[in-house]
Amino acid sequence: MASAHQPAGEIPLRDDCIVFRLAKVTHTFPANSKKPLSIHFELSGEEKHEGEESGRWALSVWDYARTTVDQAGTLLTTPGTRVPFGLQVGHVHEISIALDGHPLWVVRDVASSVIHAFEIGHCAILGLHRSQASDRKMLRDKLAQIAYPM
Amino acid sequence: MQNNAASYSVNMVSLADTRQALWPRPVLVYSNPKPARDTEWLSYVRSLAANRVVPQIVATNAEQMWRRLRPLALDIAIPDAAVTDSGTLFISWDRGVHHLEIELLPNGRYEWFYRNRDTDNVGGEYNYPASFISRDLMLQFRLVAENG
Prior knowledge:
heterodimer, A: 150 residues
């Protein structure tokens, strides 16, 4: 899937990889619903803060081949119930919007110092930060459309 | 609002698309097999404020908005919903190819967004006071509700 528009300095995942998003889900209606909603693919407050500081807006996801859901759960920095939603990387890379045929990239996002081996599964979806609200909401709805509860 | 959908311009949503979707009725792709009732929805909304999950203004706005939108729907159109860390109430409907979402913000304002998942036609309005419900939102709500 790599192309000339690949983000500089990033390592994209192969299309056949599976990643999962640990979405913070509270007070759903219907109760205990695990339906993927577009709000689950909105950058969290922490992710927005990091984006503002670094200029790199990254939605946190995990490579299922390198990190299990339980392992990722042990690394959470904020409390709250999470639901894992799976995404096929190829489906994410197929998403397009007007004037942008490849807006989203799933890339490796491993911290420079890791304590546990399974931390090397951390990845990011880049491209969700948009100046146009309609573009941002369309992209996250497209992610919700291809996501599935794990 | 009843039969004059074609008489005014819809923000970013083509009228041809809207008319086609309203009549004839599209094939249903997704539906909640056991739709909750209105009372359950209102009970949920009220519980959010009672349990301090969202600010009172968010729950109040959600209930008032529901009472204004609900009569537009022939069939019950109970949404999916979730609350964010910031106290925003996210509400969405997926009916066939139609996706509509409303975010009620803690500052008393709201955003709505519509997307036809087949054509990618979109519409929406952002940062509106919750007391104001535009004709565009009413039109999209009716469109989505009638495809449930």
